[in-house]
């Protein structure tokens, strides 16, 4: 009768001993396991906010689509500043005459809102255009300087797309559509409004009061972030007052520390009269910012397909539209210098994207489908454009330690002879040259001091991989 008791005792001792060893192991594991680093918190000062790294996805994206759409799309004349050109402190004569010739004498700008119908607005079709364009993000004007909100904002009574005009949530519908295509979504938002009485009163008080910011600007921004969780906040309309008036640093501290998009959101530099090209996230510095030299800070070039306006214009002429050669050149130059291109088109009041704009976007996508390797997730190289052949712009891919893996020479103009001279690359015995979209390697010979001359065989036009620019991929380059 003692044997079962003895066996049970032995089992109990063994079990306790095993549990003790397991406890010690777990205890040891818990002690040695690395602690999760605490999230960096940013103070509401530019010194602190400017230390926040720009999320990597934005640097890798390189190409986005900008959309200027609002009540100004109804007159579709001159651009988004139409109201100010008509009724502002310095009215433009041609705009005044345009209104006199085409609208009744008592017509007001608010009367345009009911004509902003968007009856053909198909956000899924728009998203298909933008995805086919090769864009990685889309930025929509949620509110321009006219103050009209393209979402049913509770801070803009009867001056928003839910109450008047489209009678729908233009922002939310597009956000859902582009995200289904895998694109990031951004919200353009103007800090000021042309004729808002609260803003005009603050302005008259030399911006010593903040009634407009407290009751309009900031509530809208918080509403946009909490409702749509945008990947980009594209601020504008900052130039008349310092960031202290706009309360920008407090908003950005909340955005980076506690908002639902704190880890992924990207912002620009338009947060006060002193901030452009100095503070914020990436820099825009000016509209159509294409420096053509390497920049030390991440930047974006907001450029519009229509050379004369950001919005749709009914009197648009073909000569006003950037050619594909010009668009690809801008993209190559901007990416070579470390920036992104934000290419703008203006939809119509009915909610369509004009065919010439759609064509430009889809053709950009055709080019990127062949040459995107030289654009997406690339880094600037040691040279931006070639010293011997100026119409060549360089990008590169690099290993984690910074070593150059590939150099891409984006050739904007096809060589007139059968040779392409590149002075900037330093070749090695293992250098190879290919063209993206063309399988056969190219022969090359070194130049006397530095660089190489690429021998281009006779390639039938219909076998060229691109129509507008061509990318030569160089491996085994030592610089």
UniProtKB/TrEMBL annotation:
GO terms for molecular function: alpha-L-fucosidase activity. It comes from the Eukaryota. Residues 35-373 form the Glycoside hydrolase family 29 N-terminal domain. GO terms for cellular component: lysosome. Keywords: Glycoprotein, Glycosidase, Hydrolase, Signal. It catalyses: a neolactoside IV(2)-alpha-Fuc-nLc4Cer(d18:1(4E)) + H2O = a neolactoside nLc4Cer(d18:1(4E)) + L-fucose; a neolactoside IV(2)-alpha-Fuc-nLc4Cer(d18:0) + H2O = a neolactoside nLc4Cer(d18:0) + L-fucose. Homotetramer. PANTHER family: ALPHA-L-FUCOSIDASE (PTHR10030), ALPHA-L-FUCOSIDASE-RELATED (PTHR10030:SF37). This is alpha-L-fucosidase. It comes from Candidula unifasciata.
């Amino acid at each position: 009768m003692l044997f079962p008791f003895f066996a049970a005792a032995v089992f109990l001792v063994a079990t306790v001993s095993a549990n003790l060893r397991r406890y010690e192991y777990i205890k040891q594991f818990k002690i040695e396991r690395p602690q999760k680093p605490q999230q960096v918190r940013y103070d509401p000062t530019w010194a602190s906010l400017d230390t926040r790294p720009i999320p990597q996805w934005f640097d890798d994206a390189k190409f986005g689509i900008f959309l200027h759409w609002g009540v100004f799309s109804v007159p579709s004349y001159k651009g988004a500043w139409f109201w100010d050109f008509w009724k502002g402190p310095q009215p433009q004569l041609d705009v005044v005459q345009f209104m006199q010739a085409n609208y009744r004498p008592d017509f007001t700008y608010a009367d345009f809102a009911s004509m902003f119908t968007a009856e053909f607005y198909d956000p899924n079709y728009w998203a298909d255009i933008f995805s086919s364009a090769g864009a990685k993000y889309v930025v929509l004007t949620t509110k321009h300087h006219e103050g009209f909100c393209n979402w049913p904002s509770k801070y803009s009574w009867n001056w928003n797309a839910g109450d008047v005009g489209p009678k729908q949530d233009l922002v939310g519908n597009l956000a859902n559509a582009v995200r289904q295509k895998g694109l990031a979504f951004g919200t353009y938002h103007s800090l000021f409004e042309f004729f808002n009485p609260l803003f005009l009163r603050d302005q008259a008080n030399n911006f010593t009061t903040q009634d407009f910011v407290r009751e309009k600007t900031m509530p809208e921004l918080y509403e946009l972030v909490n409702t749509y969780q945008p990947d980009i906040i594209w601020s504008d309309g900052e130039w008349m007052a310092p960031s202290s008036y706009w309360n920008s640093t407090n908003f950005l501290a909340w955005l980076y520390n506690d908002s639902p998009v704190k880890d992924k959101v990207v912002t620009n530099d338009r947060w006060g009269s002193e901030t452009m090209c100095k503070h914020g996230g990436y820099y825009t510095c000016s509209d159509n910012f294409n420096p053509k030299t390497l920049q030390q800070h991440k930047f974006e070039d907001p450029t519009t397909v229509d050379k004369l306006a950001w919005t749709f214009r009914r009197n648009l002429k073909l000569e006003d539209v950037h050619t594909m050669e010009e668009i690809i050149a801008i993209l190559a130059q901007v990416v070579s210098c470390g920036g992104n291109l934000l290419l703008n088109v203006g939809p119509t009041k009915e909610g369509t994207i004009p065919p010439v704009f759609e064509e430009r976007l889809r053709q950009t996508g055709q080019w990127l489908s062949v040459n995107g390797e030289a654009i997406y997730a690339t880094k600037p190289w040691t040279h931006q454009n070639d010293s011997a052949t100026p119409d060549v712009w360089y990008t590169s891919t690099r290993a984690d330690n910074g070593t150059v893996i590939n150099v891409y020479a984006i050739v904007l103009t096809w060589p007139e002879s059968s040779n392409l001279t590149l002075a900037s690359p330093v070749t090695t015995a293992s250098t190879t040259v290919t063209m993206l979209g063309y399988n056969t390697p190219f022969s090359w010979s070194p130049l006397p001091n530095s660089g190489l001359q690429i021998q281009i065989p006779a390639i039938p036009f219909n076998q060229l991989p691109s129509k507008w620019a061509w990318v030569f991929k160089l491996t085994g380059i030592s610089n």
